[in-house]
Every structure is written in C-alpha cells, then in structure tokens.
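QA checklist item 7 of 12: single-chain prediction sanity check.
[x] sequence parsed
[x] length recorded as 342
[x] structure emitted
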Amino acid sequence: MSEDTELDADPGVARDGSHGAVLLDGAMGTELSRRGFSLEAPLFSARALLDDPELIARVHFDYLLAGAQVLSTASFGLHARTLAIAGMGERQRELAARSVELLEAVRAHGRAQDPSLAKFRVAGAISPLPGPRLPEEQRELELAEYRALAEALIAAGADLILLETFTDLVAASRALEALEDLGEVPVWLAVVAGAPPPAGSRRPDGSRLLAGEGFDALMELAGRGRGRRPEALLVNCTQIDAIPAALEALVGAASRASWPGALGFYPHLGMRRVDGQWVERIVDDEVFAEQMQAWQRRWPQLELLGACCGSTPDYLAAMHRRFQPDAQTRERAWTRLAELVP
C-alpha cells in the first residue's frame, strides 16, 4: 500500500494528504525590519510597542489574513532586566498588556470583516532571560522574572504562554519551574536545535539542542522535571538543513517517552554560506511550504506548524494553501486547537 493510500484511508486527512495542522504565525522582528522599523538593542522588536504599535498590529493582521490561527505577542524583549537596561524597568506590566491589547484590536478588526477571523488564540511569547545565567543559589531571582512576565501577559488576556527559542534545558527548566502555579493556562515550550557541527561538516547537528543536550533529556524535563509540564513541545528558530534530524529526534524521543502532548515546529529561513555570509531567506514561500508539508507527511505527529525568522505573511499564506486547502480541513484544525487551548 502506498503512503498516499494510507493517508487517504485516515478520516482525519484531506484528500491531498493534508492533516489540517494548526497554523502558527511567522516572524515579527525580521518582518518589522523588512517594513522599515529599526531593530535596536536592548528591546529590538519590543521597542515597536512604544514607537510604532500600529505597525505591529498591521503585521499581526497580515498573518491573520494569511491563515494563522495562533498569533504571538510582541513581548519577546520584555523581561525586567531588559527593560531596566532601557531605562523603563517599571513599565513591564504596561507593555505586556499593550502587546495583548494590540492583538485584541486585531481580533475586533478581523471580526468586523469576517467573524471567523476572531477565532485565533493569543500566545504570550516569553524568551529566555538575556545575559549570563545566575548561579543556582540565586535562581529564585530568575524564577521571579519569568513569573512576572507570564502573569502580566495572562492578566492582559493571553490564552497560552509560549516559552520560545530556548537553547538549553537549564533555562527551560527554570522557566517551567517559575510557571508551576500558573493555573489552567496552557504552556508550550519551543527549543532551538542544531548543536555545533561535527568535525568536517558545516551542517549543525539537529539531533541535539543548540547547547548540546538530546531530545530524550527534553522529554524527561517536560514529563517528570520540576515545575510546570508543558502541553506542547516544538522546535523553533532552527535552520532548515538541521530540521530533518531535529524532527526525527523530537518524534523519536516523544515515542519512547509516550509523550501525551502536542508536537510542532517553526524553523527560520536563514543559513550561513560557505563564505560566512548570512543569508536571511534561502528559499521562497512556495518552496518552504512544500518542504514543510513533506516533513509533516513524514512525521504526521507534528501538528503545530509555523515559521520563524525571515518569514513573511506570504510564507504563511503558502502554508495555508497546502495544509488547509478547504473549509473542512481548516475546521479540523480549529477543533484540534480548541482541544489544546480551550
């Protein structure tokens, strides 16, 4: 029996092989830059919450129109220590609320055009803490920082917390520990794969996290570690040539651990050339969407899909056409999202 026949035999799969995967959004920082906003340290894209919130709202809305069902807040740089460096340490709660309020304004604008556009979920995005990690005896300070931002996003109305772009398990462990008493709000954890390449290779080792830990250790942390257990595990901000190994390692570890939650991935589009030059986008939108579909067909357990740095709404639109080609497939995705984020 062919793979296509097997897919068609599954009532949860569309005739073209699409599984109705839930679509996340795409990049915010690189998209703001592409539209003319200057990304500057220490706040980078979060500075647009102050200087050009309307631009953030337009980016959100364009991803919504492109098909995204989960939109992430522009809160990636809102940790207290980052804001303190920028001279506005007292404004965390205000800016976190603004990042959610912009999405609620997008929801209202979308509802006026088409009620179905208001169904998306708001993911409160939280990055790893910047700078050197505090020693173990001071970890309570780090826990407090993660907790404060999460609580501010939830108070403003975020539907879930997305811990994203975590490169090592110590930082991920502290973030999950900080969110232990978060309540019923779901938590998703996204990690960066692609340890430094072995000798003689230019390709990062996607079978391990950037810091070198394996995916079995990630599963152990997610399933039995101290702190909050995430409802979804994803690979993000990982360059495309490391993705196949990362997905094989993620799915394999999930199988061995009998992982009960959701799985997903949203890679970035950049890659370093042989001459060392960084290329922000190495594939166009249709090629990217085709490759994403090929990977998801190979590993149908992956049901949360999006794009990271370098992507634009056109990339999400191309994914939408492939993964949700008809109303029935898209409705299956909405049903699955409602299960994950009531």
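[x] summary fact logged: Residues 1-18 have pLDDT under 50 and may be disordered.
[ ] second reviewer sign-off
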